[in-house]
Design a protein that fits this description.
Layout (H helix, E strand, L loop, with lengths): L15 E5 L6 H8 L15 E2 L2 E2 L5 H8 L4 E4 L13 H12 L4 H14 L16 H13 L5 E5 L7 H17 L3 E6 L2 H7 L2 E6 L2 E7 H6 L4 H8 L39 H5 L5 E4 L2 E3 L4 H4 L2
Parallel strand pairs: 1-6, 1-7, 4-5, 5-6
Antiparallel strand pairs: 2-3, 7-8, 8-10, 9-10
Helix pairs in contact: 3-4, 4-5, 5-6
Bound molecules: adenosine-5'-diphosphate (ADP), iron/sulfur cluster (SF4) and magnesium ion (MG).
């Protein structure tokens, strides 16, 4: 059995990198792999994750847990809204996290939680509320407060607004953007929604079958998409000012990530596929400065 993944990117300081791809493309798995949080039956076969020159995948579990996760890199995991423990007060849960990871008194930790709650737009009176007493949007704000509790440098937000209605979604995105800018956070924003990438991200990586198939600045990806999969995703976005037409969709579904076909993983769904595509896997190649595409014909189709 051969598992997918061919990921190579640099997260720039104080910038937002978007990971986009349809459901099942392996985005969450990449986020979990970065922090070595994959389930115990998963195998990280190769690769490295460098933070300040140190490969954190080589650290002993204890050091990773104590020094890196949460303190340096925190994760707002998918469906995090349900991650709050229903039987503990929200403020106490965040306080426990602070006490477990840093050397502060109970009083100081409580004060820090109250400041954090205000920072994410929750009144500090809510410190004593139980999760069920908060709305979905407020629970997500509390989760963001928890992610920021130890002043991390990097936040990975996995579909942070998917479960929310559109109005609350916009508020949470604004909050994330404001916090990211004011705290100069580096952020990886994972989403299946390209419009979020356009709104929030400096750079974008398009993921297909556990691999990056296109990578560039967001502006470049939108102006000059150079992979058929990216083009398909873009064609599926409704255009407000264009004449009404039937929305395009990408026929078929992603391959089984455990048994990947040889050649280009997108070949079965690609209207440009040739015999070469089916037989040989294209490399992720720089087709113009800073713009990478994993397609044999990127230069031709990207024009
Ligand atoms: N690199 C990989 N190798 C093997 N299986 C993978 C890999 N990446 C993802 N999967 C599997 O594919 C499924 C979907 O992955 P997931 O990361 O949840 O996708 P997404 O977050 O994009 O919806 C999961 O069952 C996961 O275990
Ligand atoms: S390599 Fe071939 S099959 Fe793959 S995306 Fe490019 S044209 Fe399509
Ligand atoms: Mg996911």
């Amino acid at each position: 059995m051969k598992a997918a993944s061919n990921i190579n990117f640099t997260l720039e300081k104080a910038k937002v990198l978007g990971l986009a791809g349809e459901s099942g493309s392996g985005k969450t798995t990449i986020a979990l792999a970065l922090l070595r949080l994959l389930p115990s039956n998963a195998i990280l076969k190769s690769g490295s994750v460098f933070l300040d020159g140190q490969n954190i995948l080589e650290l002993p579990e204890n050091a990773l847990r104590k020094e890196i996760r949460w303190k340096r890199i925190s994760l707002v995991s998918q469906a995090a809204m349900n991650a709050l423990n229903p039987v503990f007060r929200v403020g106490e849960q965040i306080k426990e996290a602070i006490l477990a990871h840093s050397d502060v008194s109970d009083k100081e930790a409580e004060q820090r939680v109250k400041e954090l709650l205000e920072e994410v737009g929750i009144s500090q009176e809510r410190y004593a509320s139980y999760p069920h007493e908060l709305s979905g949007g407020m629970r997500q704000r509390a989760i963001i407060a928890m992610a920021l509790a130890l002043n991390p440098d990097i936040v990975i937000a996995d579909e942070p607004t998917t479960a929310l209605d559109v109005i609350v979604q916009a508020q949470i995105l604004l909050l994330l953007k404001r916090l990211q800018t004011s705290k100069k956070l580096s952020m990886i924003l994972i989403t299946h929604d390209l419009s979020l990438i356009a709104e929030m991200c400096d750079n974008a990586a398009i993921i297909y079958a556990g691999q990056i198939v296109e990578y560039a600045s967001t502006r470049e990806v939108f102006r000059n998409p150079s992979h058929p999969y990216t083009m398909g995703l873009m064609a599926a976005i409704p255009k407000v000012y264009a004449p009404k037409t039937r929305l395009a969709s990408i026929a078929g579904s992603p391959p089984d990530l455990i048994n990947l076909p040889r050649g280009c993983k997108f070949a079965r769904r690609c209207k440009f596929a040739t015999q070469k595509c089916v037989q040989e896997e294209p490399p992720l190649e720089e087709i113009s400065p800073g713009h990478f595409s994993k397609c044999w014909y990127a230069r031709e189709i990207g024009q």
